[in-house]
Amino acid sequence: AAGVIQSPRHLIKEKRETATLKCYPIPRHDTVYWYQQGPGQDPQFLISFYEKMQSDKGSIPDRFSAQQFSDYHSELNMSSLELGDSALYFCASSPQGSGTTQYFGPGTRLLVL
Amino acid sequence: AQTVTQSQPEMSVQEAETVTLSCTYDTSESDYYLFWYKQPPSRQMILVIRQEAYKQQNATENRFSVNFQKAAKSFSLKISDSQLGDAAMYFCAYEEKGAQKLVFGQGTRLTINP
User: Fold this and answer.
1) The domain containing residue A17 runs over which residues?
2) CATH of the domain at B24
3) B interface mutation test: which of A102, A108, A109, A110 has the most B CBs within 10 A?
4) What is the pLDDT of residues A30-89, one digit of tens each?
5) Tally of domains within chain A
């Protein structure tokens, strides 16, 4: 079965640089979620989109922005990167909104030097 | 804000034995969803089991079952006949109905002893 695809899988950036993470949901899933998991931490919700509209927002820094496109893929844009942004970034998708199972991608490991 | 608490940072069990992981949550809502996710060393997040708060019957998935106590706001995971492949970090998660985000607990690292 098709799974959530995230690219790139690994990314190394310098402080103050910009990064773009991409997420391709499972076919026919119209809801996408982004989570950030720091070392030894639980995943923290950043933002979600349903039918290309932002549906919920968590502790996402102002330096970050995200959107969902017409083909339902999503991109997380991160600017002015800080050392503390080093983390595993998960994208998840579900066929509809609240209460349905979120299927997670393999994550993008971001290292900021 | 809703919170999820897993009071056991680490647990270990002998292979083929049964282990129970604890989870409590705090919410003023009556309709919500609860999940257990497994994160093996690969860091992939894998759904183990899902429970709808309005359903009194405890969810089961093969060797995995939950004890959902709504009044006590408790949602424990029981793993029967533990296998080496069950070794992982286990996260309890909550989602309020109408929201589109999961709130995770701190996780419990489960070790299986052969």
Assistant:
1) 5-112
2) 2.60.40.10
3) A102
4) 999 999 999 999 999 999 999 899 999 998 999 999 999 999 999 999 999 999 999 999
5) 1
The Cα-based distances of A10 to A63, A112, B61, B86 in angstroms read 20, 11, 33, 26
Please answer yes or no on whether A104 and B106 come within 8 Å at the CB atom: no
Q: How many domains does chain B have?
A: 1
Query: Does A95 lie at the interface with B, CB-CB under 8 angstroms?
Result: no
pLDDT digits (tens, 9 = 90+) for B52-103: 999 889 999 999 999 999 999 999 999 999 999 999 999 999 998 888 899 9
Cβ separation of A98 and B35 shorter than 8 Å? no
What is the domain-level CATH number for residue A21?
A: 2.60.40.10
- Edge-first strand order for the sheet with A74-78 is A5-7, A19-24, A74-78, A64-68
Q: Residue B9 sits in which domain range?
A: 3-113
d(Cα B19, Cα A59) in Å, to the nearest integer? Answer: 34
